[in-house]
Specification:
Length: 348
C-alpha cells in the first residue's frame, strides 16, 4: 500500500517553533540554524566533510590533456565525448532536485547540507563543460549534448531516475521523497561508475591524466552525497515508521537491481570497443558497488559478497579516494537498521 503523507513547502521563519527540529520532514522548526543545537549532531561533521572537498574546475590545468587529445584513437575520442556529456546530463538533474528537496525538509541542518550538495553538483556540471571546452569546439560540444539527450539507451537509463524525481516534483509526499532518495543513491552511487572506469582506464595508460584527476574529485563528492542521502533515508524511515514497510524495503532492492542492470547495459554499449576493460568483470564490479550502497542503507547484500573484482581500479576506488573505511554498514540481514544519534554516522 502506498503511504502518501502530504508535504508542503516550509515557511522561512516560524518564531513559535523550536530551533532544533522535531523531525526532518513535517516537523516543527523555527527555520533558524544553530549548528550547536541540532537533532542529529553528526550532521555537522558530514557538513564539514563536504566543505573540505571544495574545488573548482579551473584549478586543473588541462594543457597536458590538450596535447594528448589527438593521440587518442578515434574510438577513444568518441567514447570520451559521449561519456562526458552523458555524465553531465545526469548531474544536470541533481542541482535543481536537491534544491527542491531542501524546500520541503524541516530540519535546517539538512537544508544546509542539501544546499552544499546542490552547489557541488553545479561544479561537477561545469567541470564536464570545462573539459569539453578544452578539447573540442562548441559545435561539437552541442552535437554531443544532443546525442546524449536523444540516445534511446540513455533515455531508458535516465527514466528510472526521472520518474522518481518528477513524481516528487509534481506530488511532494513522504513516499515520493523516499523514492527520490533511493534513486539519488542509484544515480550517484552506481550510475556514474562505468564512465569513471573509462577515464581511469585511460589514466592507467598515462593518458588524459588531468581529466582523471577531475573525475576523482567528482567521484569523491558523489560517494559522499550517496552516503549522506542514505543516512537521510534511514532517518526518514526511523522517524516515519509508517514508511518502514516490507514494500518500501523491497522497492530499495528492486530499484538498486534495476540500476545495476541499466549500468551494465550502458557499459556494454559504451565500453564494448575499449580494449583492456572486461565487461563481465565490470558487471561484477557494479554488483560490488550495489552491495556497498545497500549496506549504507542498513540493508544486507543483494549480490554475492566479493572483494573489488577490478584490482586495477583500486587506486581510484571509494576507499582510496576517501582514505577511510568505505564499507560503512556490514549488516548481513535483509532487515532495516534504525539510525539514532549514536550510531551510523561515524564511519565516513
Amino acid at each position: 500500500m502506498d503511504i502518501q503523507i502530504p508535504m508542503k513547502k516550509i515557511k522561512l521563519l516560524n518564531p513559535a517553533h523550536p530551533n532544533k527540529s522535531t523531525g526532518i520532514i513535517n516537523g516543527r522548526s523555527s527555520g533558524l540554524l544553530n549548528w550547536n543545537d541540532i537533532a542529529y549532531p553528526q550532521m555537522y561533521d558530514l557538513y564539514q566533510t563536504l566543505l573540505s572537498n571544495f574545488w573548482k574546475a579551473q584549478e586543473i590545468n588541462m594543457q597536458d590533456d590538450i596535447k594528448q587529445w589527438d593521440s587518442l584513437t578515434e574510438t577513444e575520442q568518441d567514447v570520451f565525448l559521449r561519456i562526458n556529456t552523458q555524465l553531465a546530463s545526469l548531474d544536470s538533474l541533481q542541482t535543481p532536485t536537491m534544491s527542491q528537496v531542501a524546500d520541503y525538509v524541516t530540519d535546517s541542518s539538512f537544508k544546509a547540507i542539501f544546499a552544499v550538495i546542490s552547489q557541488q553538483e553545479a561544479v561537477h556540471n561545469e567541470s564536464y563543460s570545462y573539459i569539453l571546452s578544452s578539447l573540442v569546439p562548441l559545435s561539437e560540444q552541442n552535437a554531443r549534448f544532443d546525442q546524449a539527450k536523444n540516445d534511446p539507451v540513455v533515455q531508458k537509463r535516465n527514466a528510472l531516475i526521472l520518474e522518481a524525481y518528477e513524481a516528487f516534483r509534481q506530488h511532494p509526499s513522504a513516499s515520493n521523497l523516499f523514492r527520490l532518495g533511493v534513486n539519488s543513491v542509484n544515480l550517484e552511487g552506481i550510475y556514474f561508475y562505468a564512465g569513471f572506469a573509462f577515464f581511469y582506464h585511460l589514466a592507467r595508460q598515462q593518458k588524459m591524466l588531468k581529466t582523471s584527476t577531475m573525475i576523482s574529485y567528482i567521484q569523491r563528492d558523489e560517494m559522499q552525497h550517496a552516503f549522506l542521502v542514505s543516512q537521510f533515508i534511514r532517518i526518514l524511515l526511523t522517524e516515519n515508521p509508517e514508511l518502514n514497510t516490507d514494500e518500501n524495503l523491497q522497492y530499495i532492492y528492486d530499484s538498486v537491481h534495476e540500476a545495476v542492470e541499466l549500468e551494465k547495459e550502458w557499459a556494454g554499449i559504451i565500453l564494448k570497443d575499449i580494449q583492456g576493460i572486461d565487461l563481465d568483470e565490470f558487471g561484477l564490479y557494479v554488483e560490488y558497488l550495489a552491495n556497498k550502497r545497500l549496506r549504507q542503507l542498513g540493508l544486507g547484500n543483494l549480490y554475492e559478497e566479493r572483494d573489488n573484482p577490478m584490482p586495477w581500479i583500486h587506486v581510484f576506488s571509494d576507499e582510496m579516494i576517501n582514505e577511510t573505511k568505505s564499507d560503512f554498514f556490514e549488516q548481513k540481514s535483509r532487515t532495516y537498521t534504525k539510525v539514532t544519534q549514536s550510531n551510523g554516522f561515524d564511519e565516513l
